[in-house]
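I am still getting used to backbone structure tokens and would like to learn alongside you. To get us started, please write out a protein record for me. Start from the sequence, derive the backbone structure tokens from it, and show both lines together. Once you have written the record down, we can walk along the chain together:
***
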Amino acid sequence: MKLKKNIALSDTGFVFDPSTGDSFTVNPIGLEIIKHLKDGMSKDAILGLLAEQYETDAVNVEKDYADFTNMLHKLKLTEAHEKAQG
């Protein structure tokens, strides 16, 4: 999954989509996921880092990651959404 390239992100979790004017706030884990996605990290790499950092099992991390990235897609913050609309 790739985020749209023009998404702006603050260190406090404020997310802004300049193409729509929409803004959102994410929690610290959501902020970490978005930063890793913007850096081009793979899903597996992100899942591994989160499981290690938060000392939880892979099943919970994968479910939370899927829920969060589905939300990003629904909010039209992903490149896949742009291509589907284009």
Q: What stands out?
A: Residues 82-86 have pLDDT under 50 and may be disordered. The CA atoms of residues 33 and 46 lie 7 Å apart. The domain at 8-85 is CATH 1.10.10.1150 (Arc Repressor Mutant, subunit A). The first helix runs from residue 28 to 38.
